[in-house]
């Protein structure tokens, strides 16, 4: 049980991120993931940081002396190191460190086939940053990609070990996953001072961005069901492999060029057999299952709970618990059994799916195979019985802490 805003956070498992050029106003609800956009594109990522719940940005990157001195000044002008490849960003030390030909490119043991060829990588501008890395748009073999570059902390062995562990975990997981509703892994590499992960670039942005742009206007039910099925099928695939995502939310659901939904951000995912001793409070409180908030043991059903919240988002177009802070939402979910208010005009079949998914008892929640089946049945029923497959979200009561 949590008492108001007083509860323990696990160091190094969370990250504050913000778009470059924007002031940071981070809260607990944003930790654990990155969601940014650049010209309509969007990707999600996870980087370690120990700054949780701070309203001050802690993007203290470029701590390594070699990175800080990567450029030198000559007659008042900044000049890149002469050994840096010509197609890197002249003023960006992380990108320069990645493309620096003085240090060899290293792959990951047993995953050498996924080692990217830096000669084929063209770096674009950074569009987001966190405490130990940046996210860039780039091109690899002519394809638009998202490039995540993490800095190896020089003076903190513990953080460096945890960061490398998460890097290794994310690479191994992404290399394993092959599904049309999971973000596609392109490759990764390690250099002397940085790690790099390259994935496909989702031009449509995140589902949360898409819903926010609608500003609570009528949501086409056909589209909401299609998106929900994409997510459920992707999660069914992850469940079949024994994976738990642990941070399923609309920010981590990306819209591809063909309008399909891609599940992203596996930086906090774990193999299910490792639930004993898993790090608590990983994820985002508005979408987090009560057993995770309470630090109780859990399994993949925490993802089912999060999916129920995501389905509510898709149906309503609204942010869960939008009139609460993340801490208030966590308190209400655990201590008062509060859930998002289902609109009166929501089809009964979808209401039942949401209610089952976010049940406080994990055993009552369905598997993702069941979720897919129920959504397919609801889709077939509504496409034949609903004359106009759209409705306006009618939230008559505000969601407050009381």
Keywords:
single chain, 402 residues, alpha+beta, two-stranded antiparallel ribbon, 29% helix, globular, disordered N terminus, disordered C terminus, Ser-Thr/Tyr_kinase_cat_dom, EC 2.7.11.1, ATP binding
Characterization of this structure:
With 402 residues, the protein is an alpha+beta fold. It contains ten helices and 16 strands. The chain has helices spanning 65-68, 93-99, 157-176, 207-214, 221-240, 290-293, 301-316, 326-336, 348-357, 368-385; strands at 18-19, 34-38, 41-45, 71-74, 77-80, 121-130, 133-140, 143-151, 185-190, 194-200, 219-220, 243-244, 253-255, 261-263, 270-271, 390-391. The protein has a six-stranded antiparallel β-sheet with strand order 1-6-7-8-10-9, with helices on both faces. Strand 9 (185-190) and strand 10 (194-200) form a beta hairpin. The longest helix has 20 residues, at 157-176. The model is unreliable at 1-19, 22-63, 68-90, 273-282 and 388-402 (pLDDT under 50).
